[in-house]
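Reminder to self: keep the SMILES exactly as supplied, no canonicalising. Ligand is pyridoxal-5'-phosphate.
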Amino acid sequence: MKYEFDRTLDHRKNYSYRWGMPGMPEDVIGMGTADLDFTCAPCIREALVPIATENCYNYRQHTPEYYDAVVGWYKKNYNLQIEPEWLSNVPSTIGAVRMALGIYAKPGDAVIVQTPVFSPLRWAVEGADQTLISNPMKPVNGHYEIDFDDFEEKIRKYHPSLYLLVNPHNPTGRVFTKEELERLVEICYRYNVRIVSDEVHCLILYGDNRHIPILAVNQKAQEISVQIVSLSKGYNIMSLPHAIITVADPQMRQAWMRQIQAYSFGYAVNSFAIAAVTSIMKGEADEWMQELTGYLYNNLQEILKYIRDNNLPLVPYVPEGSFLLWLDCSKAGIGTENLGRFFMEKAHIDLDDGEENFGSEGKGYIRINFAVTNKVLKEALERIRAALSEV
Ligand SMILES: Cc1ncc(COP(=O)(O)O)c(C=O)c1O
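C-alpha cells returned for the bound complex:
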C-alpha cells in the first residue's frame, strides 16, 4: 500500500464533526457523518502549499486551468462533452440544491424524491416552503429498486415542478443504471418536470458499477437538468467548500446564472478549493483513489463476512458505491426506535439512526460510515457483536 490509509489521525483535535460532538464518551467510535478518516492525496497538499506560502487571499477568478480540468474530467471519465460556460461554482452541494429549488420551483410547489432521503435535502425542500413528495425505494432481495409506477403516478397526482435525484443514492447505496436513468428522464420529460441531480457520492464505485452523470444520459436530460457534483466525498475535502454545477440548457442556465450573480458567487472563489479540485480533476489523485477504493472495499467485505460468520441479526444492503452501509436492524430485538441511542449507550459507537436522519422509511435501520482505519473497524465490529449479544 503506497498511501497511509492505516494511519490513525487524532480527529478529536481537528474538531471533526464525526469524532468530536459534545457530550460523547471519550472512547466513542465515530461512524456517522459522511467524511473519511484518512489523509488526502499528496497532490492536495502540493496544490495548497504555494497558496498559503504566498499568503494572499484576494478576490480570485477561476483559472483557465480549472476550466480545462473540469471539462477534461467529464470527457475522460464519462465521455460527456460540456462547455466551460455551462459551469458555475457554489460553496456546497446542499446549497446548490437549495438554490435550484428557489430558481425552478415556487413556494407551495411539490418536489418528488426517492425516499429514504438524506435529511438536509428534506430541509432544503422545506426551507423553500415546498412540499416533498415521496417515491419510496423498493427493497427487493437485499437491493433497492426504483418504483417507476409509483413515480409516474405521484407525478400525475401532485404535478411536481422538480425531481430531486440523488445518484448515487444515499442511504441505499444504489448507483442507478443507464436504463433506470433513461426511464426517469423519459417520465420527467413527458410531464414537464425538471431534474436537479445531486451526484456528490459518484466518486467511489465498486465492481462493475459505473456512474452516469445526468447530462450524459441523453439530449432530453440536457434540456431539463441541473447537474451538481462536489469532489468532497471522494477526496475528503469537505472543508475546502465547493460544488460544481453544470447546466446545459440555455434558458435554464440563464435563470441559474442570474442567481449566481445575485449571490455574488462569482467572487466567492475559494482559492484552496479551486486549486485542490484542479489537481484532482487533472488526474493527479487517480492512483490514490484507486487505492482508497480497494481499502474501502476490503472494509466492506470484512463487515459482511463478520455479520455472516457471527450470525449477527443485521441485514446489509450492500452499497454499489461510496462508503456508507445501510443495515436493517429490525430482527435484532432492539426495537425500531432510537437505534442511534442504543449503539451509543451499549457500544459507544456514534452512527446514523435511520429514522432520525432519513425519515420514516429509515425506521429500524442504521447507516454506518466504514471509511475508518481497518483497526477501528475491527474494534467497532466487536463492540456491535457484544452489544447485540446482550439483548
Ligand atoms: C446526498 C448528499 N448530498 C449532499 C451532501 C453534502 O454535501 P455538501 O457538504 O457539499 O453540501 C451529502 C453529505 O453526506 C449527501 O449525502
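Points to follow up:
Residues 11-41+286-389 form a domain with the Aspartate Aminotransferase, domain 1 fold (CATH 3.90.1150.10).
The chain has two domains: 11-41+286-389, 46-283.
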